[in-house]
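Milestone 3.1: sequence recovery, worked example.
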């Protein structure tokens, strides 16, 4: 089943598949319209849909004009990337310029692919998941992101199901007007109050990282998509839950550690253990490296002034459902060790390496 960018390839060459199988994925033109952050922003603004103020530079001269007008903080974003790759928060005019130039150089961008600049908006991350039948939204559910890794720009790694009719209405307007067919997930930011406006951030025109949240809550999108392809319609979703939390193991734990480290005192002590763990992992025993990491965590939590905060954050993991751990298929859990190994070896999680995401220039090499 296509999960990531395979969806785009199948859509692009659907005429080679359709004589043999049914292809319940959107048209490639529709995918390109919403996956590209520049065309999505232009499309949303034309139709009066709620989206943060966004600038779409045409060339370097245009960017210089834009840079002085942006209200900070803001984000510099690649037009075509996901999973937190190619997104950088900037707080000063100098940071806007250096980040913009860095992205152009690193991702080898052409003028037509220059990054967009988008004002930051307050609130939490919400993900609206949908299934469309030729422009008609036939299923939708929303979950809130409780943790992301890395913080502020990474993928959601802990989630809970919520009700969000206003956001789902925007999703129906945006994708319905395109005649969308198949699944899609839309990211929003919302402050959570009745008078606050939810802002559309981006669209993932495919299956999404929090799929397990939808499935465990009663919206089994793989099965619904299969029904749509084979039967031509789906049965209404009836048995649903809103008391579900899921998480990506290891990454969710690292996200919690990151929050503790960044918001509590004693970061230097814990960071020292991290450095020792990374060095041990690179040059010595990987087992001792992992042991040193968790020894540092234990020692950090033993500090009385931070105990209650740490306990509160860790208790949020208590009854969560793990998205890759299952007694029916235990070997899938080996996959979560990869980001931990990358973290210990390099001191960071390289999202480009893990997700295969990057700029348009990557395809030219």
């Amino acid at each position: 089943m296509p999960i990531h960018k395979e969806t785009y390839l199948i859509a692009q060459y659907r005429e080679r598949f359709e004589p043999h199988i049914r292809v319940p994925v959107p048209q490639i033109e529709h995918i390109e319209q919403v996956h590209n952050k520049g065309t999505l922003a232009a499309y949303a603004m034309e139709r009066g849909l709620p989206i943060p103020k966004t600038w779409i530079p045409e060339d370097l001269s245009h960017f210089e004009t834009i840079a002085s007008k942006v209200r900070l903080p803001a984000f510099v974003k690649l037009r075509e990337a996901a999973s937190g790759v190619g997104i950088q928060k900037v707080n000063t005019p100098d940071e806007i310029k250096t980040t913009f130039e860095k992205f152009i150089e690193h991702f080898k961008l052409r003028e037509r692919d220059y990054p967009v600049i988008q004002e930051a908006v307050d609130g939490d991350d919400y993900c609206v998941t949908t299934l469309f039948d030729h422009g008609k939204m036939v299923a939708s559910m929303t979950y809130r992101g409780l943790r992301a890794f890395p913080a502020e720009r990474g993928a959601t790694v802990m989630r809970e199901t919520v009700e969000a009719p206003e956001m789902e209405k925007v999703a129906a307007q945006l994708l319905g007007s395109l005649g969308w067919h198949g699944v899609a997930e839309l990211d929003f930011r919302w402050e959570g109050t009745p008078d606050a406006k939810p802002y559309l951030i981006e669209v993932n025109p495919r299956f999404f990282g929090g799929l397990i949240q939808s499935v465990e809550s009663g919206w089994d999108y793989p099965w619904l998509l299969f029904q749509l392809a084979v039967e031509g319609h789906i049965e209404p979703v009836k048995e649903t839950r809103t008391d579900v939390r899921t998480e990506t193991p290891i990454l969710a734990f690292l996200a919690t550690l990151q929050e503790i480290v960044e918001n509590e005192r004693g970061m230097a002590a814990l960071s020292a253990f991290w450095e020792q763990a990374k060095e041990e992992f690179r040059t010595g025993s990987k087992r001792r490296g992992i042991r040193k990491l968790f020894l540092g965590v234990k020692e950090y939590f033993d500090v009385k002034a931070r105990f209650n905060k740490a306990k509160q954050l860790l208790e949020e993991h208590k009854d969560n459902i793990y998205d890759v751990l299952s007694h029916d298929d235990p070997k899938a859990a080996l996959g979560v060790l990869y980001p931990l190994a990358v973290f210990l070896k390099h001191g960071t999680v390289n999202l480009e390496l893990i997700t295969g995401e990057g700029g348009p220039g990557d395809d030219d090499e």
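The chain has a mean pLDDT of 83. DSSP finds 15 helices and eleven strands in the chain.
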